[in-house]
């Protein structure tokens, strides 16, 4: 019940059933009444409701799950899967950006460099983290850490969870587009393995600024898109209220399509109903995937690693040539 204290609109029937179950347990304790049959009936109804909800999710509902405030964020996975993490701060040019975190750590005893976008749990923390939308200095800090990883021959693991880079005036004044473009260029040349995990939202260049990787993993209910549904809706229909329609048009949540087209390499399964329902299982699933891909990439020669990474991104998408009449 802990994670359904906050429930998405389509999850509210489950929250109501959880409350009924809790009330029955309380009644049994206070009045010494046997409610076994009633409890069993509600538990069966909960399981049936879960199946009905989570096996028929719409693209917009998957977006909502990807944004769930109880979903594990970057620092949650760092705490669960890594040891000896030391967070580094600042881009050595302007300031530190709390929406982008990173530093060296160990994964199962192996040194790695971690980088990721970080959201907040409540309004105060979200304001401090800028809702996971990095400024230019966030991307420059990330690149500083990636260059350090190359110097010390550390594999890089990046966690993507952003609706996009911050589009404010200050961000534009400090050249956010240039910062992202430099990251894309320089990441393509790094001589160490890079693994990116899309753990929630993967919006636009804000995601790609830390995702030019040898392997891209995507959690089952995460999305990876050229634009967030609200921004798409505002452009096409001049109204953010059409975000659910935009999510469907963008095929958000269709992880199989992303894998088929070579955009991602592996879909990391989530606990039934989403990572917020069982963060421990989510961490175990991710650990298994990271273990496999780190092992595979560590066996590649540097030249092969860089060439495959370059070819990967050059081969994405389709274009046609024609003669204008």
Which key features would you list for this structure?
325 residues; alpha/beta; 2-enoyl-CoA Hydratase, Chain A, domain 1; 8-stranded mixed β-sheet; 14 helices
Strand tally: 8
Mean pLDDT: 92
Radius of gyration: 22 Å
Give the C-level CATH assignment of the largest domain: Alpha Beta
Distance between the termini: 64 Å
CATH topology of the largest domain: 2-enoyl-CoA Hydratase, Chain A, domain 1
Report the major sheet. Answer: 8 strands, mixed
Reported CATH architecture of the largest domain? Alpha-Beta Complex
Percentage of residues in DSSP E strands: 5-15%
Low-confidence stretches: none
Number of domains: 2
Shape: globular
CATH homologous superfamily of the largest domain - what is it?
2-enoyl-CoA Hydratase, Chain A, domain 1
In short:
The chain is of the alpha/beta class and 325 residues long. The protein has helices spanning 12-31, 36-54, 59-66, 74-81, 123-129, 136-151, 169-173, 176-187, 204-208, 229-237, 243-249, 255-260, 279-298, 302-314, and strands spanning 82-83, 100-107, 110-117, 156-162, 194-203, 215-219, 223-225, 266-268.
Helices and strands in order:
Blueprint: H1 12-31, H2 36-54, H3 59-66, H4 74-81, E1 82-83, E2 100-107, E3 110-117, H5 123-129, H6 136-151, E4 156-162, H7 169-173, H8 176-187, E5 194-203, H9 204-208, E6 215-219, E7 223-225, H10 229-237, H11 243-249, H12 255-260, E8 266-268, H13 279-298, H14 302-314
Parallel strand pairs: 3-4, 4-5, 5-6, 5-7, 6-8
Antiparallel strand pairs: 1-2, 2-3
Helix pairs in contact: 1-2, 3-11, 6-8, 10-11
């Amino acid at each position: 019940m802990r994670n359904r204290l906050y429930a998405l609109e389509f999850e509210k029937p489950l929250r109501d059933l959880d409350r009924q179950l809790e009330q029955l347990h309380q009644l049994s304790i206070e009045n010494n009444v046997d409610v076994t049959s009633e409890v069993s009936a509600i538990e069966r109804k909960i399981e049936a409701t879960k199946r009905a909800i989570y096996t028929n999710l719409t693209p917009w509902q998957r977006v909502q799950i990807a944004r769930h405030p109880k979903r594990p964020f970057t620092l949650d996975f760092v705490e669960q899967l890594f040891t000896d993490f030391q967070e580094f701060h600042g881009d050595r040019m302007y300031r530190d950006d709390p929406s982008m975190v990173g530093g060296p750590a160990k994964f199962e005893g192996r040194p790695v460099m971690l980088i990721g976008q970080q959201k907040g749990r409540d309004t105060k923390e979200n304001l401090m983290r800028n809702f996971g939308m990095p400024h230019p200095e966030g991307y420059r800090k990330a690149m500083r850490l990636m260059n350090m990883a190359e110097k010390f021959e550390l594999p890089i693991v990046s966690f993507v969870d952003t609706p996009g880079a911050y589009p404010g005036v200050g961000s534009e004044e400090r050249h956010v587009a240039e910062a992202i473009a430099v990251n894309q260029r320089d990441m393509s040349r790094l001589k160490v393995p890079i693994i990116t995990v899309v753990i929630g939202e993967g919006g636009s260049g804000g995601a790609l600024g830390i995702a030019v990787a040898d392997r891209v993993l995507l959690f089952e209910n995460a999305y990876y898109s050229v634009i967030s549904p609200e921004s798409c809706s505002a452009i096409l229909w001049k109204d953010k209220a059409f975000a659910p329609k935009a999510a469907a048009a963008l095929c958000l949540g269709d992880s199989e399509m992303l894998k088929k087209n070579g955009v991602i390499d592996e879909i990391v399964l989530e606990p039934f109903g989403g990572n917020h329902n069982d963060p421990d299982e989510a961490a175990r699933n991710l650990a298994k995937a990271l273990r496999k891909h780190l092992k595979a990439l560590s066996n590649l020669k540097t030249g092969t690693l860089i060439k495959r990474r370059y070819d990967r991104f050059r081969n994405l998408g389709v274009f046609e040539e024609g003669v204008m009449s």
